[in-house]
Specification:
This is DUF2510 domain-containing protein. Residues 98-109 have a biased composition (Pro residues). The chain is of the alpha+beta class. The chain folds into 2 domains: 1-36, no CATH class; 115-278, Mog1/PsbP, alpha/beta/alpha sandwich (Protein Transport Mog1p, Chain A, 3-Layer(aba) Sandwich). It has helices spanning 54-74, 180-196, 266-274, and strands spanning 6-9, 18-21, 26-31, 85-89, 115-118, 121-124, 134-135, 142-157, 160-171, 201-213, 216-226, 236-247, 250-259, 277-278. It has an 8-stranded antiparallel sheet with strand order 4-10-11-12-13-9-8-7, with helices on both faces. A hairpin with a 2-residue loop joins strand 5 (115-118) and strand 6 (121-124). The radius of gyration is 19 Å and the shape is globular. The relative contact order is 0.15.
């Protein structure tokens, strides 16, 4: 399913009600009948040219995640095919996961206080061998994601290197209709598609549980990912995904991936997660 214009079950949760998604935003009114008065009419006015601002991409990502979460809860036993129990994860995630925005959303201001800031959160800046903070644009449903990497296998394929990473940023997921637990499964699924492409990945969750971060509701998934990629010595890695409810209208995401060929980097990644602070 993709965020195409059309009628969908009301994301506000009203039983038997539908709301129109025009490709950018939800209609103000819900209707008991798809095709009812909630769909805005075409006035014939259009705006051409110019660049799409960050708000457009936020709206698209919000709509995509709303629709995906509706599908997850509306279709019985869909969770059985989402991995997490040692099953193979389908390589193609394009039907449910949003594309990376053409115009990346900038990360939070970095005040130079020895911490990396993103999504209303921060973690302590990691020293050598971790590199300087840099923007990451591939994070599904992520906005203003920033983090640090260590190159583990340089140039294992032409123009490609395998890295360990720690990232933090904002999770674009609407206005309070979901919980961190509800968002975690689809976000993890889309991360696999975004970061591992068409490679077959087997996922085995080690931790999948509720947490709190400075009193804020959170959900943690730590999973072992196994794969066999041509010319790559790394065959598995630990992925850590923490989703934190910052307030009623926003959430933050912490993501780390540590290859088995660099096990010494796993504890610093876990320590970074444990040292997250809520900012502002």
């Amino acid at each position: 399913m993709s965020a195409q214009p059309g009628w969908y079950p009301d994301p506000a949760g009203q039983p038997g009600m539908y709301r129109y998604w025009d490709g950018q935003q939800w209609a103000a009114e819900a209707s008991p009948t798809p095709g009812g008065s909630g769909a805005p009419s075409d006035s014939g006015d259009s705006q051409g040219g110019g660049r799409s601002g960050p708000g457009l991409w936020i709206a698209i990502a919000v709509g995509a995640l709303v629709i995906v979460l509706i599908a997850i809860f509306a279709i019985p036993r869909l969770g059985d095919v989402l991995g997490g129990d040692g099953t193979e994860v389908p390589p193609s995630q394009g039907d449910v996961c949003p594309p990376a925005p053409e115009t990346p959303i900038p990360p939070d201001d970095q005040p130079g206080d020895g911490r990396v800031h993103g999504g209303g959160m921060s973690y302590p800046l990691l020293g050598s061998p971790w590199g300087a903070p840099e923007i990451e644009t591939r994070m599904p449903f992520g906005a203003g994601v920033i983090g640090q990497i260590v190159t583990v296998e340089p140039n294992y394929a032409p123009g490609q290197s395998w890295v360990a990473s720690v990232h933090i940023g904002r999770l674009v997921a609407g206005d309070g209709f979901y919980s961190p637990e509800a968002a975690s499964e689809i976000v993890v699924r889309c991360i696999l598609g975004s970061f591992y492409g068409d490679n077959e990945v087997t996922r085995s969750d080690q931790i999948n549980e509720a947490r709190t971060v400075e009193g804020h509701e959170a959900w943690l998934v730590e999973t072992e990912l196994s794969f066999d990629i041509e010319n790559l010595r790394t065959t598995n890695e630990t992925a850590i995904i923490l989703i934190v409810a910052i307030d009623a209208e926003s959430a933050g995401i912490f993501f780390a991936s540590i290859p088995n060929t660099a096990p010494e980097l796993l504890q610093p990644a876990r320590d970074s997660m444990d040292a997250i602070r809520i900012e502002g």
